[in-house]
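Lab notebook, design round three. We kept the backbone fixed and only want residue identities now. Task for the bench partner: fill in a sequence for the structure below.
Input structure tokens:
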């Protein structure tokens, strides 16, 4: 590559560099470079190239140092606080409250909560996100946590395959977000019931039978839905900018995309850790919703009472028709 400093860059120097290196070991070339950097005062160094890639004309980009500081320092702190903070909160909650049980005990009867298509879309999005999250966290924390444990060769292999998986799983993750939005948006519009649900702490903070009313999705689940849809859309969009460099923006735009991608991703990881906790070890009967699609009737009545009433009304209409529904309502 033929590279020569452009006239504007030379104009910033104010004349030829003639300084003599103070260190006798320093070569004239390195001395000239030090004088040049000092004259530029940390500014941009641009030139001309004879190859088609015009981006190569930027030899030094000051914003790159700012981006590097963000990735190595700021993002590490933000991610560490978000992820470790959420884990600490959940640990304290579990130690103080234990697993949330079905107050009335299992009913032995189930009600259909999610069909096969809904569960397939959920698991496609979820499994993609888990791999994306782990491979992304490795890029931020791997050199500090994983490298000392498994060594450089294994860490290189893990990082390489993680990068490949990260790039390709972006597509099913994006598709999953679109499908979940289309299927569930009608049930995730916030309303007054959700305000009451949050005021009651979702029934998680009180003692005893303190379960606020909610529809098919409660206020917390709606919040997770919109975090997934809106946050996931921004993460996906910024990720595609990085997967296809210079397709829609320059290097400054890609650095901004990385900042958005990194911050939103670690915040989403923290939110999904809470979602996974509640849907597995944190609450009895919750996993069945996305496991078999059938949930215990008492669990549904306690956590989604308004939805159960709607489903029961639909069942009466289906079985008895209009007359049957009228009679059931009279009961």
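Proposed sequence:
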């Amino acid at each position: 590559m033929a590279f020569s400093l452009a006239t504007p860059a030379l104009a910033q120097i104010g004349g030829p560099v003639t300084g003599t290196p103070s260190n006798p070991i320093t070569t004239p070339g390195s001395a000239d470079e030090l004088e040049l950097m000092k004259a530029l005062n940390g500014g941009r160094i641009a030139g001309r190239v004879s190859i088609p890639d015009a981006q190569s004309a930027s030899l030094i980009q000051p914003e790159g140092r700012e981006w590097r500081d963000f990735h190595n320092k700021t993002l590490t702190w933000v991610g560490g606080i978000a992820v470790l903070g959420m884990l600490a909160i959940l640990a304290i909650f579990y130690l103080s409250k234990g697993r949330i049980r079905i107050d009335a005990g299992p009913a032995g009867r189930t009600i259909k909560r999610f069909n096969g298509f809904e569960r397939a879309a959920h698991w496609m999005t979820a499994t993609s996100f888990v791999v994306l999250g782990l491979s992304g966290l490795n890029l931020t924390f791997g050199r500090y946590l994983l490298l000392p444990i498994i060594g450089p060769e294994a860490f290189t292999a893990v990082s390489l395959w993680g990068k490949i998986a990260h790039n390709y799983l972006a597509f099913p993750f994006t598709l999953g977000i679109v499908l979940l939005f289309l299927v569930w948006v009608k049930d995730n519009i916030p309303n007054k019931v959700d305000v009451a649900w949050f005021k009651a702490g979702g029934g998680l903070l009180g003692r005893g039978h303190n379960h606020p009313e909610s529809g098919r999705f409660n206020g917390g689940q709606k919040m997770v839905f919109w975090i997934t849809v809106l946050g996931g859309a921004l993460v996906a969009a910024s990720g595609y900018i990085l997967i296809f460099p210079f397709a829609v923006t320059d290097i400054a735009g890609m650095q901004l995309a990385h900042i958005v991608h990194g911050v939103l991703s670690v915040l989403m990881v923290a939110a999904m850790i809470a979602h996974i906790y509640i849907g597995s070890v944190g609450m009895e009967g919750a996993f069945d919703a996305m496991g078999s699609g059938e949930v215990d009737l008492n669990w549904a009545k306690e956590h989604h009472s308004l939805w159960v009433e709607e489903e029961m009304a639909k069942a009466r209409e289906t079985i008895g028709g209009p007359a049957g529904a009228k009679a059931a309502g009279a009961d």
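Keep this in mind before ordering anything: The chain is about 65% helix and 5% strand.
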